[in-house]
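Can anyone check this?
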Amino acid sequence: MQPDGAVSDESAVPDESELERVAVPATVRRAPKFGAFITAGALVGALLGLVLVVVTSSPDTVSGDGFISFLGGDGTVRLLTAFALAVLGGLVGGALAVGADRRSAPRR
């Protein structure tokens, strides 16, 4: 016996016709995560900056004593190049995220 005001399990689950009557059509928009795009762009830019400085530096300028000695004496140049390209990569990543976001939006 159920107490007054209690709802039985059978009436709690709506039937198919009730669902069709109250259902509202919806669309799901898959928007990109801007932070992930910007972070990935910054990491790729920093890595590209370090590789660029290592490839373009001449071997006779490496002395081993610099701002960041474990980077081979050209630490300041490598650090600033990596930082500059990380900022540029973050901007490119943000622009790609905006493009992906606009592409995912429904047409008007």
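Reply from J.R.: I decoded it. The CA atoms of residues 51 and 70 lie 15 Å apart.
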